[in-house]
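Hello, quick one for you while I still have it in my head. A protein chain has come my way and I'm curious about its shape. I'm sending you its amino acid sequence along with the backbone structure tokens. I'd be grateful if you could look everything over and explain what you see. Here's the protein in full, and shout if anything looks odd to you:
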Amino acid sequence: MRKLTTATLGCALSLTIAACGQREDLEPLAGSSLPPKAYGEESQPQSADLLEPETLAAPERSVELRRRSEEREDDPFDLPPE
């Protein structure tokens, strides 16, 4: 019974600690700065700019999904094994 209570207490404590998230803007550590501006850029990026994923990191879907089954076209490269 004691092991069960200790495990339950440990699990509850870890969930409580994990739920404590930072709710304010991110700032660089003391004594450090953000990365330098890229070649050709006019200004140094802010922390919010660095957190946004680039288009290639999260592309939008450009292919329409099939809504119904359709017959496949004949594939000349789909050959039986030799």
